[in-house]
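Hey everyone, long-time lurker, first post.

I ran two proteins through the pipeline my lab uses and got sequence/structure pairs for each. Pasting them in order. The first:
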Amino acid sequence: MSDNRSGGPSTKQSLEALYEKMSTVVRANLERAGTLTEETLDRALKEARDWARQLKEQYGEDVPKVAEYLRRDFQEAVRQAGKQTRRSLDLDRIGVGILGFVQKMAERAGSQLESFASKLDERLTYKTGEVAGPGTLTCTQCSQHLSFDSASRIPPCPKCRNTTFRRGY
């Protein structure tokens, strides 16, 4: 365990804990907004960053980095939910973690979700060392799956040591 003089997290779990706490703030703000648009996601992330900055001594400069991880994960969840909606599949099949939240929002704002998801057509890349929410990542090189039950740092691929992944459900 390192000390916290550098302004960074004092333990490996700190970044994951910050992700979980900020994710809770984002979800609460999005639920209050009642819609899921790029603007409401931006506002929710800003509020989460503002909230987390109050803990600057504990998390240092990790707040903006974690906010980007959350943006990526929410956008990917929206893209996947939109894809599922377009295929007319039951959204109950994707009800884990962030996706459970997106499911609720999709039921309330189907057309808004579809519009938002269409903006996220390009696949988002996840990299070793970043934090990702619950779900499965697939190695871009060998298709090995990594599954997470909670927010976790992404390790190199255990099969081929590749460092880039895509979200899979």
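...and the second, right after it:
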Amino acid sequence: MSDHPATSQASLLMEKIVGASCVLATIIFSMSSPLCAAEVTETKNDGAVAIIDTHAHVIRGYRPRTPFPTGANLLRAMNTYLVEMEILLPPPFPPDRRGSYGLRELAPLARADPGRFAFAAGGESLNPMIQQIGPDKVTPDLIREFQQQAEVIVKAGAVGFGEIAAEHFSSGIGNHPYESARPDHPLLLALADIAAQSGMPIDLHMEAVPRDMPFPRRSFRGQNPETLNENISGLERLLQHNRRARIVWAHAGWDLTGERTVLLMRSLLEKNPNLYMSVKLDKSGFRGTSPFGLDDRLKPGWIRMLLDFPDRFVIGSDQFFDEGTERLSLARKFVDELPPEVARVVASENARRIYRFETKTK
């Protein structure tokens, strides 16, 4: 933990968390004991800055005949790592799993506890359309259908659109296939216009491919292509299409091509004022582009980037709550290592502004 000074906000939050948690009856799938104050205080969170996690998944996959988890299933992990709020969203489901879970399941969960949960949607409905329909096959009728699907999400009270995939590798986990769509796909450009009009950001999953290249030599169990097509220019065209559309490029710090460098990110941030990034930590990513060095401290280049662009980064753990809490733990570690002048901004204040929580809760 770093030596950030304690704040009354964090203390009040902990009091609220502990009080609410002691009445819970079911915690994290395999655990049945309620969370009590003694368990919470075992975590060293004195002086820690509360986190708004903008990108997490309740479960990896969902079978409709099984009960969908409630918010009580998630709160123990959130409380342990001083996560004030989670934005829950579906993974970017492929066309053959359209509707696996998303708006239908996440909206009631968020409405039941709006102080701790918000939701984004489209991974179950918009993403399958983007993946299934080639850019040259998009017709006015398809755009209207896509817009109608997006409008349903807006009216349901979501805070964003996601998770949308432009370049998503298959790890073999959960049988999720490789997905690839041009970042400037006509449907993504249409979504940018809707995002601008509604004030809702797009959560974009895209491995960085700055040039045509062979698929990186890593041990993926899933089926992936032998080569990858350059996608950074397409991302810039998406960003330029509507500057009022906020694009949150997910998973900064967890890079599977070795190409999402500080140099690349800085260049894109300098040129594109509507580009934001959510930070994810996972040991499976390239160590060379991780925020942490071999000494387990934040790298100077990362610190300089965060200080130069303090309003452009949020936390997005990508935690699947049915698979443990390692990514939440690493998100906590990242926030605790941040310089004091940007810790609270990156941990929570940017998320409130980008996802317009005040507007959504009025």
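Reply from user beta_strand_b:
Welcome! Quick read of the second one: The CA atoms of residues 43 and 193 lie 43 Å apart. Residues 1-44 have pLDDT under 50 and may be disordered.
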